[in-house]
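Researcher: Good morning. I'm working through a list of sequences from a screen, and I'd like to move beyond sequence-only analysis. For each chain I'm collecting a predicted structure so we can compare shapes side by side. This is the next one on the list. No need for commentary yet; just the structure.
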Amino acid sequence: MIHNSIKKVLILGSGALKIGEAGEFDYSGSQAIKALKEEGIKTVLVNPNIATIQTSEFLADEVYFLPVNDFFVEKI
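Model: Good morning. Structure tokens for this chain:
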């Protein structure tokens, strides 16, 4: 069980991927989002890759299709 005081979590996607490595990152990230949501925690995802399960409309509460770098993450 996750500590009750956590209300919202920012999840950083892996960004650009090479052929053959997308599946592992996408699967682990989507499982993390599911687990957090089961605990009642809102999830905010930053991931520039639109071709992932993580960025599906039904998964994270908020999705930003932006580069994963300090400039954009600070804006969110």
